[in-house]
C-alpha cells in the first residue's frame, strides 16, 4: 500500500508562463491532504500534473521514494463530477471502471454493490435507477464511488464538497476520512475550515510562493490575516479564541454545524 507522495521542486508551466515554482510538499495516507489557494492559483493544474494529464513541468513526483507512475494508480474526480454521468443506470455507472478493466458482469456486480454500500447508497434501492434520479448528495457519492471503485492508491478530488448541503458535506467528510485509511486522499477545496480537523497536511498555493503547512499553522496565519486566506466570518468567530494556539481547536464539523445553526436561530429570533 502506498504511504507517501512527495513533490520535489515541482515547477509547472503553461507555455512560457510559470504557474507553480519550486513546489515542495508531501501527501500521506491516514489523513486528508488539503490543497488550498485563491482562484487561479493552480490547484486544478496541480491535480492534473499528479494525474499525468499536464506534462509541462520540471521536478519530480515520488511515490515512497520511486518516480510516481500515475497511469492506473490514480483517480481524479473533477469539480461537479456528477455532470459527467454517461451511463443509463447506477449499476452501469459504478461498474464502468471495472468493465474497462475487462472484468465480466458477473464479477463486477458484487464488487459494485458493496462499493455503493460503502458510499452510503443502498444498491437494492437504486441499482437500476438512472443516475440523474438520485438526490444531489447521492449523485455526488455515486460519482465519487464510480471514480474509486477500482481502488486506485491515490485519489484526487477537486472541490468534492462544493454545492452540497451541510448534511451532505458531513456525510462526505466522514467517507473521505474513511477512504484515507487505504488511499492517499488529496482534496482541493475553497472551504478548508470544513476539513481542517481531519487533515494532516495542507499545501497553500500562492503566486508569491507556495507553502506546505500543518493545518494549525494555516489556521493561525488565516486568522491573523484574512488576505492570507479568507475564512468565512462564522468560522473566524467560532475559532477566534484559538488564534494564538498552536493546536487546532477542538471543533468537530458537527459542533461547527450546530454552532452555525444556533446563530442562525438567534438571528431569526432577533428579526
Ligand atoms: N489550458 C490552459 N492553458 C493556459 N493556461 C491555463 C490553462 N488552464 C489553466 N490555465 C491558467 O492557469 C491558472 C491556474 O488555473 P487552475 O485551473 O489550476 O486554477 P485553480 O486554482 O484550480 O482555480 P479555481 O479555484 O478557480 O478552480 C489560471 O490562471 C488559468 O488561466
Ligand atoms: Mg480549479
Task: Give the structure's gist in a few sentences.
With 271 residues, the protein is of the alpha/beta class. 37% of the residues lie in helices and 22% in strands. The chain has helices at 43-50, 90-100, 105-118, 123-126, 136-148, 166-179, 215-224, 233-239, 253-270, and strands spanning 4-14, 17-28, 32-36, 57-63, 66-67, 74-77, 154-158, 184-188, 199-204, 211-213.
SSE diagram, text form:
Layout: E1 4-14, E2 17-28, E3 32-36, H1 43-50, E4 57-63, E5 66-67, E6 74-77, H2 90-100, H3 105-118, H4 123-126, H5 136-148, E7 154-158, H6 166-179, E8 184-188, E9 199-204, E10 211-213, H7 215-224, H8 233-239, H9 253-270
Parallel strand pairs: 3-8, 3-9, 6-7, 7-8
Antiparallel strand pairs: 1-2, 1-4, 4-5, 9-10
Helix pairs in contact: 2-3, 2-5
Bound molecules: adenosine-5'-triphosphate (ATP) and magnesium ion.
Descriptive notes:
This protein has helices spanning 43-50, 90-100, 105-118, 123-126, 136-148, 166-179, 215-224, 233-239, 253-270, and strands at residues 4-14, 17-28, 32-36, 57-63, 66-67, 74-77, 154-158, 184-188, 199-204, 211-213. By secondary structure, the chain is of the alpha/beta class. The chain folds into two domains: 4-73 and 153-270, P-loop containing nucleotide triphosphate hydrolases (Rossmann fold), CATH 3.40.50.300; 85-151. The strands form two sheets. The chain has a six-stranded mixed sheet with strand order 6-7-8-3-9-10, sandwiched between helices. The chain has a four-stranded antiparallel sheet with strand order 2-1-4-5, with helices on one face. α2 packs across α3 (105-118) and α2 packs parallel to α5. The radius of gyration is 19 Å and the shape is globular. It binds adenosine-5'-triphosphate (ATP) and magnesium ion. Residues 14, 19, 37, 39-45 line the site of adenosine-5'-triphosphate (ATP).
Amino acid at each position: 500500500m502506498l504511504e507517501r507522495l512527495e513533490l520535489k521542486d515541482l515547477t509547472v508551466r503553461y507555455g512560457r508562463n510559470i504557474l507553480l515554482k519550486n513546489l515542495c510538499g508531501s501527501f500521506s495516507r491516514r489523513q486528508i491532504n488539503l490543497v488550498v489557494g485563491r482562484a487561479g492559483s493552480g490547484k486544478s493544474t496541480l491535480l492534473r500534473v499528479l494525474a499525468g494529464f499536464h506534462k509541462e513541468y520540471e521536478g519530480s513526483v515520488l511515490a515512497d521514494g520511486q518516480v510516481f507512475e500515475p497511469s492506473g494508480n490514480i483517480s481524479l474526480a473533477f469539480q461537479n463530477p456528477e455532470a459527467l454521468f454517461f451511463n443509463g443506470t447506477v449499476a452501469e455507472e459504478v461498474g464502468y471502471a471495472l468493465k474497462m478493466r475487462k472484468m465480466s458482469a458477473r464479477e463486477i456486480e458484487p464488487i459494485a454493490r458493496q462499493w455503493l454500500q460503502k458510499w452510503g447508497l443502498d444498491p437494492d434501492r437504486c441499482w437500476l435507477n438512472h443516475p440523474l434520479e438520485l438526490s444531489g448528495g447521492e449523485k455526488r457519492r455515486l460519482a465519487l464511488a464510480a471514480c474509486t471503485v477500482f481502488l486506485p492508491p491515490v485519489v484526487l478530488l477537486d472541490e468534492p464538497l462544493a454545492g452540497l448541503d451541510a448534511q451532505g458535506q458531513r456525510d462526505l467528510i466522514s467517507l473521505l476520512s474513511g477512504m484515507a485509511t487505504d488511499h492517499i486522499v488529496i482534496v482541493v477545496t475553497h472551504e478548508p475550515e470544513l476539513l481542517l480537523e481531519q487533515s494532516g497536511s495542507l499545501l497553500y498555493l500562492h503566486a508569491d510562493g507556495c507553502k506546505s503547512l500543518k493545518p494549525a499553522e494555516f489556521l493561525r496565519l488565516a486568522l491573523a490575516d484574512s488576505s492570507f486566506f479568507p475564512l468565512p466570518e462564522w468560522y473566524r468567530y467560532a475559532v477566534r479564541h484559538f488564534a494564538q494556539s498552536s493546536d487546532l481547536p477542538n471543533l468537530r464539523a458537527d459542533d461547527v454545524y450546530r454552532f452555525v445553526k444556533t446563530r442562525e436561530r438567534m438571528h431569526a429570533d432577533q428579526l
